[in-house]
Amino acid sequence: MSLWKFAGVSLALASVGTSQGVTPELQLLARIKFHMHEELSRIPNYTCLETVSRFRNNPRSRSQSPSQLTALDAVRLEIVYSNHREWYGLPGDRNLSVDDPGKFIGSGMMGNGAFAATLSNILEAATFTYRGEENLGGRTAVRYDFSLRRLLNAFRISIPGGDGTVGEEGSFWADPQSLDLIRLKSRVAEIPASLPLAEASENVNYARMRIGDDNVLLAQQADLHMLHATGMESYNRLDFTHCHAYSAHSDLRFDPKPEEPLQASIPNTADGAGQNVPASLLVTVELITSISDLDSVGALIEGMVSSDVLRKGRIVIPRGSVVRGRIRRLERSPEGGAFILGLEFTEVDAPGGSLPFYADLLRIDKNPGLQPAFFEQVLVSDRPGIQAKEETITLPELPGVATFLVSGTTFTLPRALRMVWRTRGPIR
Predict the structure, then answer these.
(1) Is residue 307 part of a domain?
(2) 239: which of 1, 23, 377, 400 lies 20 to 30 Å off by Cα?
(3) Considering its fold, how many domains does the chain have in total?
(4) Can you give the residue range of the structural domain that contains 15?
(5) Contact 159, 196 (CB under 8 A)
């Protein structure tokens, strides 16, 4: 079993002084570091549904192209972030006490630390070089390259044939106005001889999410890529959806009983405890919130259920119920003339209270400039001096998430635009 594992570190970030003689680029770096330290320190306890889409290329296999990634499986886990640590469990579990997601799979690559540990490692101990401004998905971003020596890092990789701590190098992009991190790309360096690894890299995209009353910056999507010395290649796409606040508890014992692992306890909702919308129901949602290219990622959106949703003659979701979510993605195509738009609906009002909105988009009102996107071209190799390797992969549908290609140099999705969804029922 291949295991990509990040170890957490403290969040004390080195600061850069603003004394005379320090360049504006270093002053900006200091402001970004301080801002991200504040963001990491105020992240509330929360839980998300993590979907891991796993792909593999086995050069020894006769059933696939020697250079093509093929789908392996999709793994869904409940992940809790609490006090700078991550806990994992199966969706629907009320107690999560596993800190290694690899325990839920039989084989293949899994990893942890995409939420905060990786970022903390880099901001704390890496050296940085300013590379200027770049356009990133239609946003102006400043880029800094970084290098983190192996002896200063807490990044450990364990794969068949060996394990060891590695160094890292790469880049991060941040908004020079808000100071929010937009993207982090890293690859391993200083691979020890005992580790049969040819290359490994990680890309993390960050976005604003509403957690309770807080609007916080979190990792919302990540990519992991690993190439074993034998030629075995693994690629994981991680997506985090349905994030919400939770409460946690731990037990303190004074008796000599064996020490038990800490647990993150996720309570049921106050009104809709233990309830879920049944599977295979059609839900027609009309947008209440108009959406345009002037909006920002993380902006809250709402829709309204246009007709009663029935199951065996009983109303499960009444007409007029509100469906809530956010803009998950809004990027201008590098070629221009189009946008990539992602909408995420997370909850729907029901007679017993708000319930998770686990559903797949079936269709949308006819619009010549709007086309659902089911495929994505990903960069799975980005080593210096080596031609980048791009592949088009088919991504599994994320519950409550719809991704579109919107043509034009500007766009507006009007209120009352209708979408038809089919519910999944509880995620297991």
Answers:
(1) yes
(2) 1
(3) 2
(4) 3-245
(5) yes
